[in-house]
């Protein structure tokens, strides 16, 4: 379908005719606008494309929902949390450089564009996702610090991609950290997510090898009667304080400005974002030994509904100055929500969009489970870094978590029609 008429927002572009067609034919069923203010999506059930698995009308709204691959920003940043995720890093193969990287990004973008629209993979489709529709599949690509040496593009590497500082509580495994290329896959169907993973791994061919892979999950959409903020594996409501797309400064905080400061050679990142990825193990056996009251003191919020200990409901602002009858702050001085609050960090903010993980039982008998912490910001030095520095010094939660791996990736803007992700860097 060719359609040049688009309904445009700062975050997303979607074909107006497709949008109206979807609403007209199926009500708002196939449309989802994120609880955290996500990407506009459309129903593939009413918009079957050539090669689409699943005939029109045979899909539920969950299966039929598609997220746009093209737009100002890549999908998978403001898209509502999906039920399944795969996060992986690749290293370019020995001898592979800019030419091979460009060809790979072209192949990957071609595959992602098709799969996100609910079509089959361009070559030798495995059939894993037949019948399921796009199921809100998103594929997001990023470049690590080492990518620029490998491709001879260090002059175009933004300073924002400089390695993160060391933090005293880090227990990082180098083998599961960093990497030349980063891929985030999310979908509301496990087979759809795995199908994309397999297709992208095959596309890598001889050009790149998987460095590490992590698999995660979230609550399934529709499991609660109305959308709720997700819970993590400690049982806390997690995501309340996230910046909202309706906030006036949201774009400024999360996305690199189109014509921002800095050398013109870095303009390829305009509309992009930086992802910090951390595998954070939760020491769940120790956590579960704490009473609920103790757990709430660690975070500074109630476990039941996420409300601040200073009162109100989930979205009531924290009253950080409120004192209890004992003269002490009601939200303890080392509570995680206090220390991470933008007001305590010169306004530093990030968009947290994590997956939980569970990789079985560790040799010591404890669950190898926790949070695949992924946060998005226009500049890590005004997002993750100052907040983590502060958490590192005195967060009550530190006793119950362990940062085991780390990555920082430059995530280019969304591709235009016919473009591949990163083309403005690799061919600019
Ligand atoms: C450096 C950034 C952060 C890391 C690492 C981090 C780890 C982490 N957090 C939780 C659970 C919660 N975090 C909450 C709030 C919150 N956390 C961060 C940053 C990091 N968290 C921020 C910026 C905020 C928001 C603060 C605010 O705006 O007021 C909360 C409270 C609810 C919420 O706002 O989301 C919980 C719960 C875990 C379990 C964890 C590591 C495993
Ligand atoms: Fe947090």
Automatic annotation (TrEMBL):
Cofactor: heme b
Domain named Dyp-type peroxidase N-terminal: residues: 74-218
Keywords: Heme, Iron, Lyase, Metal-binding, Oxidoreductase, Peroxidase, Signal
Main EC class the enzyme belongs to: oxidoreductase
Keyword Transport: no
Role summary: Involved in the recovery of exogenous heme iron. Extracts iron from heme while preserving the protoporphyrin ring intact.
Source species: Streptomyces racemochromogenes
Protein's UniProt name: Deferrochelatase
């Amino acid at each position: 379908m060719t359609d040049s008429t688009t309904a445009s927002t700062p975050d997303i572009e979607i074909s107006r005719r497709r949008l109206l067609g979807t609403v007209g034919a199926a009500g708002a069923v196939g449309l989802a606008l994120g609880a955290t203010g996500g990407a506009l999506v459309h129903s593939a059930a009413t918009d079957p494309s050539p090669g689409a698995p699943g005939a029109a009308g045979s899909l539920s709204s969950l299966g039929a929902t598609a997220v746009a691959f093209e737009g100002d920003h890549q999908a998978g940043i403001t898209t509502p949390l999906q039920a399944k995720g795969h996060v992986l890093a690749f290293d370019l193969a020995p001898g592979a450089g800019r030419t091979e990287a460009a060809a790979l990004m072209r192949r990957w973008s071609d595959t992602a564009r098709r799969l996100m629209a609910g079509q089959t993979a361009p070559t030798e489709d495995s059939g894993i996702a037949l019948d399921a529709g796009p199921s809100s599949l998103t594929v997001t690509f990023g470049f690590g610090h080492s990518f620029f040496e490998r491709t001879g593009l260090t002059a175009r590497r933004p300073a924002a991609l400089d390695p993160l500082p060391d933090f005293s509580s880090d227990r990082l495994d180098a083998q599961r950290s960093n990497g030349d290329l980063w891929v985030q896959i999310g979908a509301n169907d496990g087979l759809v997510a795995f199908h994309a993973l397999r297709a992208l791994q095959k596309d890598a061919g001889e050009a790149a090898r998987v460095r590490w892979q992590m698999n995660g999950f979230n609550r399934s959409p529709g499991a609660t009667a109305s959308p709720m903020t997700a819970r993590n594996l400690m049982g806390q409501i997690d995501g309340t304080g996230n910046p909202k797309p309706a906030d006036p400064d949201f774009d400024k905080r999360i996305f690199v400005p189109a014509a921002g400061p800095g050398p013109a050679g870095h303009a390829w990142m305009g509309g992009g974002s930086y992802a910090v990825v951390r595998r954070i193990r939760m020491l769940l056996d120790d956590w579960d030994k704490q009473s609920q009251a103790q757990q709430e003191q660690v975070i500074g919020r109630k476990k039941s509904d996420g409300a601040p200990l200073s009162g109100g409901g989930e979205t009531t602002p924290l009253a950080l100055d409120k004192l209890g009858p004992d003269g002490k702050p009601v939200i303890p001085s080392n509570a995680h929500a206090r220390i991470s609050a933008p007001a305590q960090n010169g306004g530093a903010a990030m968009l947290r969009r994590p997956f939980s993980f569970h990789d079985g039982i560790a040799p010591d008998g404890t669950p190898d489970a926790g949070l695949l912490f992924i946060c998005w910001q226009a500049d890590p030095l005004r997002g993750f870094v100052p907040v983590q520095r502060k958490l590192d010094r005195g967060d009550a939660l530190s006793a119950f978590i362990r940062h085991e791996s780390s990555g920082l990736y430059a995530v280019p803007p969304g591709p235009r029609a016919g473009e591949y992700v990163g083309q403005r860097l690799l061919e600019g």
